[in-house]
Amino acid sequence: MTLPPGLPSSGQNQVCKLEKSLYGLKQASRQWFAKLSHFLIKHNYNKAIGDHSLFTKYSSSNSITVILMYVDDIILTGNNTHEISNLKTLLDNTFKIKDLGTLKFFLGFEIARNKTGISMNQRKYALEILSDIGLLGCKPSNTPMTYGTHLFQDSSAPFHDPPSYRRLVGRLIYLTNTRPDLCFAVQQLAQFMANPTITHHNVALKVLRYIKGTPVIGLHFSNTSIVQLKAYSDSDWAACPDTRRSITGFCIYLGTSLISWKSKKQKTISRSSCEAEYRAMAITTCELTWLTYLLEDLQYNFSLPAIMFCDNQSAIYIANNPVFHEEPST
Hints:
Number of domains: 3
Radius of gyration: 24 Å
Largest sheet: 4 strands, antiparallel
């Protein structure tokens, strides 16, 4: 750090005592979170076990107030308008906040409401990616990747600008927050951030051409869904030509609303398709457990158990009968 212009210095070996955290330092976000958390807990808000950035407050009249934080951006909701107004006043008196009204845009997410529920997409963010790359006028593609494509560290020429490839894939990763249809393709591209080739860059351009034709695809959360978690788990087997590892894929619904999904390479090599499917089921179970804790923090009353679907009979038998747990390795 250097002294700001105009501040006199009487000599060397002096330090500055910070009265508050400076914006931009690595410690700034942690200090801000600690201060805001202390403020909310002081006013009887409870930190959620499943997500430490989520705070809830309940009253005896079945009212609930929920706060979700991302650094200094806050979403506030609930069914107690008096408590919401009181909290906004307290936050403004303590931190000087700006009330942006009804939630319509948040961190690149566009939110819209209607009689059937809430819709969310990243249309503006997707169009910004296309504009920055110069593909706003490109011909759309029907699919993000050619069917059956599995990328590997091929022998094609290295891409001439690796930093731009990394920036593009990083932005695509953020786009998958509302685009589960891009998860597998982006997962494939993200494996080659260190040494991308021309082939990898061409596949990334095909993903962008698919986004050009589907910029408004997003999520819809129905207001009539039943409170039941349903998970669908799947896996390929040794499909990666470089590592021979399998890829896990799952999606989880709350009623009819998709709330969680993932496409990720497994950490170890599976010696059979049954073992790969069983590992995928284990990863999906961990996600179901976390979502259960999160919904319990929001006081969701589960009347029906969570259900998992898998298309591998051997993995299902092993999951149902612990005696067969050694079977995948034989």
